[in-house]
Amino acid sequence: xxxxxYQAKELFKSFGVPVPGGGLALTADEALKxxxxxxxxxxxxxAQIHAGGRGKGGGVxxxxxxxxxxxxxxxxxxxxxxxxxxxxxxxxxxxxxxEEGTAIAGELYAAVVLDRAAERLAVMVSxxxxxxxxxxxxxxxxxxxxxxxxxxxxxxxxxxxxxLFGCGLPVALVNQGVGILQNLVRLAWEKEATLVEINxxxxxxxxxxxxxxxxxxxxxxxxxxxxxxxxxxxPAESDPLERQAxxxxxxxxxxxxxxxxxxxxxxLAMATMDVIKMAGAEPANxxxxxxxxxxxxxxxGFEVILTDPNVKAILINIFGGILRxxxxxxxxxxxxxxxKLTVPMVVRLEGTNVQAGKEILGASGLNFEVAxxxxxxxxxxxxxxxxxxx
Amino acid sequence: xxxxxNKNSRVVVQGITGKEGMFHTEKMIEYGSPVxxxxxxxxxxxxxxxxxxxxxxxxxxxxxxxDTSICFVPAAFAADAACEASxxxxxxxxxxxxxxxxxxxxxxxxxxxxxxxxxxxxxxPGVITPGECKLGIMPGYIHRPGSxxxxxxxxxxxxxxxxxxxxxxxxxxTCIGIGGDPIIGLHFIDLLKMFADDPQTQAVALIxxxxxxxxxxxxxxxxxxxxxxxxxxxxxxxxxxxxxxxxAGAIISGSKGRAEDKLAAMEAAGITVVKALGQxxxxxxxxxxx
Lengths: 390, 290
Prior knowledge:
The complex is a heterodimer. By secondary structure, chain A is an alpha+beta fold. Chain A is 36% helix and 24% strand. Chain A has 3 domains: 1-20 and 104-237, 2-Layer Sandwich (D-amino Acid Aminotransferase, Chain A, domain 1); 21-101, Dna Ligase, domain 1 (2-Layer Sandwich); 240-385, Rossmann fold. Chain B folds into 2 domains: 11-120, 3-Layer(aba) Sandwich (Rossmann fold); 138-288, Succinyl-CoA synthetase domains (Rossmann fold, 3-Layer(aba) Sandwich).
């Protein structure tokens, strides 16, 4: 789960990581009040959406007075912001964060991230702050300093010092940096975050380190034991259909093509999307109804797929396994009838009692085409999707 | 021969009295797997499917000589269960449970490493040595004893591949679903090392998916050290970046974890890459004979 910058900064603050004073506003009036409550001087108005690159898209504005802040907020609120991370459709700005401006002397990058290969948390620091860290890693890897946190151990001071001296920082800043890095690690462990990132971690004109941006990703599997974190989820940030699917217990991701897919198991679901594309059609979605695929889940799956107006055909690919295909076929037929399905469908079943399953589909009187293999299913669905021979 | 589990394994089921645990234990016994005991704290003295149930794994080991465990316990207790198995001297622990917090897994891995316990999973279908021992939730009947080792990050996708192999006349030595989480027990490379030493295994099917760089690392290892033919597949060519595709570990982060890069690494390592999943069985059969 991702959260907004302002939420990350509030968490930083509670973990002892310095951030500029600021406040959240949903309207221009609120923005004025927030701005008037802050220290006089320059102010920064920042659109709150879950995506990087906001500055280039007009989502960050530096202003000189509370009145200008209110005007900038008024412009930003309701606008659709397109950045390299939002996709072409962009995201609508519903909240802005207004904070005190910082006189910046330098910019660092600091992050705590789950290192899958090392199977522990990695702490990364770079003197190349304010830039896309992936680009830094690709072009100048020597500018990234990394260490790992041993399970059950803190980030030791010496580990942090190695990174910070590596960045060429003077002693006074190294000492501040050690505290910040240790606090970030503590935040990651205690709140079970797989990414805690500050980019940039600014060096101010007064030689202080301060977090000017914040990005945190939490482990979805751990949210149950962090209710206060789960509450930070912003429904406006996810596709409403994807959200509805999550509530139904389905793994669904909308993709934009015309062939709806329903598959049991995540890997097979991805492979099914891939074969559709290879056959010349475009998948409309990823949908994993679970390895066990019950009639109930199939019904829910249909409901979600059909809510997407782009869907012109549906490919169902179920590897029955322990589940019997006749039971499953009966479930598909019942669900299709219940929902009065008219979209053409190709069904590929495999597993126990597959023959009986195919007979049930054939005798249903519904618009099913049965495929015997993955390859055949893909060919058939591509034809159907193109409005070809049926 | 085979790897990890065989007819001489002695299996204890952790969480045997739960719905999933009981259902799959019955299927494992039907397959002929050497299940000897079950564990559910507080239920010692009961019998489930004619198997003795113990309060602790240590008791089960002491009374039945169990050396292998499979966990069906809910995610919130699964890390605890895996460590308990390790503490009791279990050699191989298979964790089926999904949605175990990743910080728990960091701790579990350190605990198990210190005690030399091997773990498969979590969030996986398990391990099967066809004809000898099914330790998981996979449908047993699609497998045949034979010479192809199968390693996969997925569940039903593995069944699909195994089914194609069997239909193409190719049996399997051992099939392992290593799990779809960011942090897992045994990796591709650990298992490739075991397959390298297993005379029954003549070829390996490597089934990957987007996210992380396990496939790239496996490919680098294969290029340098692994002499048996390897056939590779990677799911998720059409997966969009930044979206978690069902499995917690299946996510393209920025430009990392893309299927194209994994396939390219496999090809560069001399692995026979199968792009159309429907052709997997036929491709392997053509290369090594069905």
